[in-house]
Write a structure and sequence with these properties.
The chain is α+β, with helices and mostly antiparallel strands and 170 residues long. The chain has one domain (3-167). The protein has helices spanning 3-21, 25-56, 59-63, 159-167; strands at residues 67-78, 81-92, 95-103, 118-124, 132-138, 143-149, 152-156. A hairpin with a 2-residue loop joins strand 1 and strand 2 (81-92). Helix 1 packs antiparallel against helix 2 (25-56) and helix 2 crosses helix 4 (159-167).
């Protein structure tokens, strides 16, 4: 967890305690739900980042000169929504695969479209048609990353799809 997330959790916990002491159970319940969703978001984003980083740091990838950079606390926009999360850049020569994922942190940041817990995008430098938006969504039994078009899920972003995205670098 980075400093921003630690500070956010500290403030949520303080607000929850204040709400409970003031007899505002509905606000405390909302803050508990928000905290639980934030934990799911962090875990989902960490899984996504680690999946790409694992591929990029394998012995095979290192031997052909692939480099990886990770930035936490990265701010970016999708449409009118402002998100805070991570940026992963995987470079091979002049090619670059970047993965951004995050969620809205403040009311002024906008809304999470389609009921998404987190949103982001995968960009391939020089291949705009291979780039696209992603969303972390709940289904009946779990949480999963999806490929999104116009705010709607059109496919799963699973290990097979992540491998396919990564292979476009070579």
């Amino acid at each position: 967890m980075n400093e921003l997330d630690i500070e956010w959790e500290t403030r949520i916990a303080a607000a929850m305690e204040t709400a409970m002491n003031a007899g505002r159970e509905e606000i405390a319940d909302y803050l508990r739900l928000r905290s639980a969703n934030d934990a799911i978001r962090r875990e989902g984003i960490d899984w996504l980042a680690q999946a790409f980083i694992r591929l990029a740091t394998s012995r095979e990838s290192e031997s052909i000169g692939i480099t990886v950079e990770r930035l936490d606390g990265h701010r970016f926009s999708l449409g009118r929504t402002n998100l805070t999360g991570i940026l992963i850049e995987i470079k091979h020569g002049f090619r670059c695969l970047s993965v951004e994922a995050g969620w809205t942190r403040a009311p002024g940041d906008g809304i999470m479209r389609g009921g998404a817990l987190a949103m982001g995008r995968i960009k391939h430098f020089g291949f705009p048609k291979a780039s696209g938006e992603i969303a972390l969504v709940r289904n009946e039994v779990s949480v999963l990353w999806t490929i999104a078009e116009n705010g709607k899920a059109v496919g799963r972003l699973d290990a097979v799809e992540i491998d396919r995205q990564f292979r476009m670098l070579s």
